[in-house]
Each structure stands twice: as structure tokens, then as C-alpha cells.
Amino acid sequence: MLNSVPLRLVLASQSPARRKLLQAAGIEPDVLVSGVDESQVVSDRAEELCLELARLKAQAVLSRLRATPDERTLVLGCDSVLAFDGEILGKPADAADATRRWERMRGRSGVLHTGHCLIDVTHEARAEAVASTTVHFADISDEEIAAYVATGEPLAVAGAFTIDGLGGPFLTGIEGDPGTVVGLSLPLLRNLLGELDLSIADLWTKVAPGGQEIEHLD
């Protein structure tokens, strides 16, 4: 059902890709960076690791917010890791690490897991889940790896690749939601909102991408 109280979504992430994904879907989030030290969490299961990190990010931002009677506030924390060849890969340590990863990944496949933790600050409720998408990597050359790593992009993202940036040409296909690879699954977000008795339409802003008006139903 559509919510009668104004909704505020706070994205607990500094990722511009996650913010752009929400904006393209008609959602304008506030952004507060969690500052969570990701190295503090250790797990040998990718799904558990990304979900725990998503929880920590959401909780860190939650601690800086206060519920108000005239607004319903939601906090969304997300974290992504790549499960590849029996290992869990977050962001590369440096350029050499990113190069080694791509030398192993090329021509093969991995599973990108993104944990989502959505907290309703106003009602003290929570919904969380993990989205998983299989990624197939192209058999790229040493020269292409060197050129890609030199851009710096692989150093800033989980798994050392993007689907929506310079890394897109180096993927041959995916099985699952592309948003999971970007770092935020919109279909999963819709489901989590439903668990909190909210609709994705409750988060739409007045003007959608392209400038058309969004009319809320009564």
C-alpha cells in the first residue's frame, strides 16, 4: 500500500553506482557514509559476510539518526563480495592484486553476492536478504587487463570489476539481476519494502528520470 507519511531513504553507502541505480528508478536517497571497517568481519561464507557487513553499515548510520513524527525514515545498507574459485573477494588490495585476480578470472565465472539490510527507523523494524548473480568473464588479453587496471576502476569495487562502467565489455553474460552486480538489487529492495508493509512506489520522487511526472494513486 502507498504510505501516507513522507518517506526518507538513507543510503548507508558512498557508492555512486548504488545511488545512480536508485535515482534511475525514481528514488532520490540521502547518503550517509557508514565508515565501517570491513576488515573487522571474517567469514568463510560469502552470503554471510556480505549480509553482516550490510547490517553493520546500516546500524552505523542508524546510530546517527533520530525518528521524527512527521517522517518515516528508512536506512539501507548494502555490501558486495565475489565468490570465485573457493575464495571470497572484496576490493583488491592494490593494482598487482587486481591484475592477479583478472588473470585468474578471465574466461571463467564467479558469483557476485550483495547483502541488503533495510531498517525502518520509525517503527524499529528490519528486513534483510542476499541477492546472488552469476557473472561470466571474457577471456581478455594481458594488455586489456593492464589497461583496465591502470584506470583505477578495479581497485574501488568488489571483485575488481564493474558491469556499468569500464569493466562492462569484459563480461560475456550474467545469470540473475544486473543490479546485484552494481551493488543493489531493485527487485530485492521491493521485496524488503513489502516485508515492512511498504511499496516501492512510496519511494518514488515527484519527477522521474526523463522529467515525466509521477502520479501517486489514492
Describe the structure.
The protein is α/β, with parallel strands linked by helices and 218 residues long. It has one domain: Alpha-Beta Complex (Maf protein), CATH 3.90.950.10. Helices cover 28% and strands 24% of the residues. It is built from 6 helices and 7 strands, in the order βαβαββαββαβαα. Strands 1, 2, 3, 4, 5, 6 and 7 form a 7-stranded mixed sheet that branches. A hairpin with a 2-residue loop joins strand 3 and strand 4. The longest helix has 17 residues. The radius of gyration is 18 Å and the shape is elongated. The C terminus is likely disordered.
Notable characteristics:
7 strands, Maf protein, alpha/beta, 218 residues, disordered C terminus
Q: In a few lines, what is going on in this structure?
A:
This protein has a single domain (7-203), classed as Maf protein (Alpha-Beta Complex).
Number of domains: 1
CATH architecture: Alpha-Beta Complex
Low-pLDDT residue intervals, each spanning 5 or more residues = 212-218
Major β-sheet, in short?
A: 7 strands, mixed
Element-by-element helix/strand order: EHEHEEHEEHEHH
Q: Looking at the structure, what is the overall shape? A: elongated
Tally the helices: 6
Which structural class best describes the helix and strand composition?
A: alpha/beta
Bin the strand percentage.
15-25%
What is the helix content? 25-40%
- End-to-end Cα distance, whole Å, is 10 Å
Active site: 79
Subcellular location: Cytoplasm
Keywords: Cytoplasm, Hydrolase, Nucleotide metabolism
Catalytic activity: a ribonucleoside 5'-triphosphate + H2O = a ribonucleoside 5'-phosphate + diphosphate + H(+); a 2'-deoxyribonucleoside 5'-triphosphate + H2O = a 2'-deoxyribonucleoside 5'-phosphate + diphosphate + H(+)
